[in-house]
Amino acid sequence: MKSITIDFYGKEADYLLLQDVDDVMEYGTKILQRDACIAAQRMLKTGLQPDQFDHLITHDGPGGIIANAYYKSSMGSGVAAVFEAGIVSDEKIERLLGHVSNGEEVMINKVGGFCFRTPDTKILREGPYDPMEEAAYVINDDTKFINLENDAELEKHTIKYLEKVDPNYSYVCNLRSFSSQQLEDIFRMFKSKGGEAAYLYTTGFDIPQIHDYCRALRRAGVDKIDFEFNSGITDELQDAIDTISEKMEVRVWESKRAPKGP
Question: S-S: 220 plus which of 70, 148, 188, 226, CB 3.0-4.6 Å?
Answer without folding.
Answer: 188
